[in-house]
Amino acid sequence: MKLIECPRDAMQGLPGFIPTATKTAYLNALLRVGFDTLDFGSFVSPKAIPQLRDTAEVLAGLDLSATKTKLLAIVANRRGAETAAQHPEIHCLGFPLSVSETFQRRNTHQTRAEALADVAAMHNLCEQAGKTLVVYLSMAFGNPYGDPWSPALVVEYAAQLAALGVRVVAPSDTVGTGSPATVVALFAELIPAFPALEFGAHLHTTPTTWRANVAAAYQAGCRRFDGALGGHGGCPMAADALTGNVATENLISFLAEQGEVLGLNLGALGEARERSAAVFAGH
């Protein structure tokens, strides 16, 4: 079982800039909790995501001396991947590949074909640098833009990623269109079809819909979940009424009910929740 904490996703759309020292202290608190992976920042254009323009400075201030948590940084193109790959502290690069042509252009200013070409190059870069590429399949559970969507289309993209050698794929409910039926149907098809791939669930939900969608993914065999303390975040590139990330607190309680042993430091979790409240105060 892998729990991925996503403060980057939680912070990236906030209008007021969070000071670098505040971000760093919050991330250091999260590193002490014992999550599998921390989605901590992004190497993208500061014009696109000004909130995370200080990712390199934040990285320099992280205390990695006593944590098992891996660091993941989001990139939007090869240039960002090349920059991120130069940092030995970063274990994983994450790239958003959309099954929606409209959203791919909106999110990374590429066609899907161009984005797939970047995925191939970034995977090779990661292999050379000893890192793992995590591909987020955005709009995996539905498309609000009128583009074609079907589970078969998502499976087709997963097949292309598997052929490239990608090992971790996270279907993403970018604007919260997923339902338990679509979530379970997709994971139940993907997981048996591609045994070499590790599938994760990156779900954006509301406080009343999270449990049904998380349970659907879990029942279909998913054992990698993304969340954010407090349920903050969403995708600012969607430019729609947004739902937030699944609250990590809810994920922890759900997984405990299933008998999963996460091995988290609950004292450190409490401290991180206190810092989270300060970071997101007023948002």
UniProtKB/TrEMBL annotation:
Keyword field: Lyase, Metal-binding
Known EC number: 4.1.3.4
CDD domains: DRE_TIM_HMGL
Family annotation (InterPro entries): Aldolase_TIM, HMGL, PYR_CT
A Pfam family matched in the record: HMGL-like
PANTHER family: HYDROXYMETHYLGLUTARYL-COA LYASE (PTHR42738:SF7)
Name this protein carries in UniProt: Hydroxymethylglutaryl-CoA lyase
Organism: Hymenobacter caeli
